[in-house]
Amino acid sequence: MAVNASDIPDMPTLQAIGSRRSYRYYDPTRTVEDWKIDTMLNAARFSSCQGNINCTEAIVVTKDSDLWDEIEECISGFNVQIINQASHLIFWLTNLNAWYGRANDGLSSLALSGALTKYHGWNYEFTMTQTVPRLMSFPAERTEILLRFETGQHVSAAMLAGQSLGVGSILCAFGRKPGGVEKAFNLPPHYRFTWGHAVGYPLEDMSAGGQRPRIKFSSLFSNQEQGNPRQMADGLEDALKAKGLIQEQAPLPGRFEEIDKLAADFGRDPGVVSWPEKEVQRLMNDDDWDFGPHIRDRAAAIIAEGGLPEYPAEMVETFQKLMTEHGIDASKYLPE
Length: 336
Ligand SMILES: Cc1cc2nc3c(=O)[nH]c(=O)nc-3n(C[C@H](O)[C@H](O)[C@H](O)COP(=O)(O)O)c2cc1C
Description:
The structure is a single chain. This protein is an alpha+beta fold. The chain folds into two domains: 5-200, NADH Oxidase (3-Layer(aba) Sandwich), CATH 3.40.109.10; 220-305, no CATH class. Helix content is 44%, strand content 9%. It is built from 14 helices and four strands. The chain has helices at residues 13-19, 34-45, 68-74, 80-85, 97-112, 124-136, 140-164, 180-184, 217-220, 236-243, 255-265, 277-284, 293-305, 315-326; strands spanning 56-61, 88-95, 168-172, 191-200. A four-stranded antiparallel sheet has the order 1-2-4-3. Helix 5 (97-112) packs antiparallel against helix 6. The chain binds flavin mononucleotide. The site of flavin mononucleotide has 12 residues, from strand 3. Residues 21-22, 24, 76, 78-79, 170-173, 195, 212 line the site of flavin mononucleotide.
């Protein structure tokens, strides 16, 4: 049956952004409709792209693919369950040749569209004798950074579009076999596999146990110069809560029971991972984090319950190395 506009829900943008979670439990019996996947791909297609070069491509894969076993061997271990329950796996690719091969036409298409105008100093001769030659002289590594950034934001649009349709997403690292995905798909050398993206109908509640905590707004964003904290506009936090961008922070009541039930249903181990008591205490006292009451209550409860792990001695080496190699103060991560 053909899709109608009335089939498409109207979730406001800010609500879709606030409702998005990385879903890790999917209903293996449900397949996401093609039109929803195609809507997500269209959201990517219409994202902003440098010079209109359209460098972001994707391969949509389902478990009946002949390549599934090979793909599974490449994905990081903690993602294996996820992709096997998900409905689709989208492989987001960055075509570096789009930069070199399409910038001329991309810019021309923008001029024809009325987007590139003389107002901003665009001029055909200058473009062809200065701008394009300069852009075309970029080494592949520079082009790769620029274009992968672009692919990232295309993926983000796809995830948000999915969320607004009730479809869950998660990005999945393929760290187990570097180069394995490129090999499985026999990608030409100018293609980069940028990220894997699992899509499906979540088995967990769409709140996935609440919005995950973030660093405080004023610790992330500055005014005029870096480190000069920007304060949120008066009343905005409450207004954004009302509009669904800022949602109730995790863990919502019932989250741990939900996880244990999912584990029981699929014959997996119940429970979540915990850090040592001192680490949890230190984190809760870190003023950069925007922690609300649920996570503070959870931290207090696991500390009261006890049985938390100790620092493994091996961690010392990693954090000491961080201090010497990157000059960052990682001493807070070291045991006293
Ligand atoms: C580039 C990228 C790669 C990620 N890779 C993984 C992954 O391999 N496995 C996983 O479980 N989560 C992965 N995530 C999801 C993050 O862990 C998640 O975004 C973070 O915990 C915040 O939670 P939220 O997305 O629900 O807000 C990835 C996220 C990003 C942006």
